[in-house]
Amino acid sequence: MDTLKNAANNLDYEIGYKMNRNADGTFSYEYVQGLPNSGSLDGLVVNCPLDGLIHNHNQGPDMLSIFSFSDINYLSYLFSEGYINNIDNFVFGVVTDEGTYLLSISDPNAFSNLSSELSILESIYDIYVKPENSGLQNEIGLLQFLKTTNSGLSLYKGDLSNFNTWNKIGTNRQHTNIINLNCN
Q: pTM here?
């Protein structure tokens, strides 16, 4: 995670890791890298089920402080093509200069419905999440998008100092701030 955090602050391309769980419970990581100034992991090939995928967003002019719509679209691809080993334990993450986040598929049926309508939903996403927004605005915006679209996804925020503490997050009633929700 430190590598992703440093890359988010210093590189002009995205990097990431495909993750698979070993028999002993530890993870194996396969490094992936995008092209300079592309804002994506161009050429990322997944041809067998994964236990996780985590990447960074760099500090390019149009880079987001949180998951992009393309990220959500790629998660949908992994889900619909059967490239997720265990939906209950799958890790899908992004590290940015503003924070570290995970998306989990909390309701596979709702996410499946969302996946079938992604082409129309990008314009809704763009209302809530923008490159010029602050990190807080984009956290609130992504949460509002996930709720508005009944996405079946939950958002978690990690502790940047050690990457060991994760909290499911939501918004307060006024949608002006982030709150930690019950996380088990």
A: 0.90
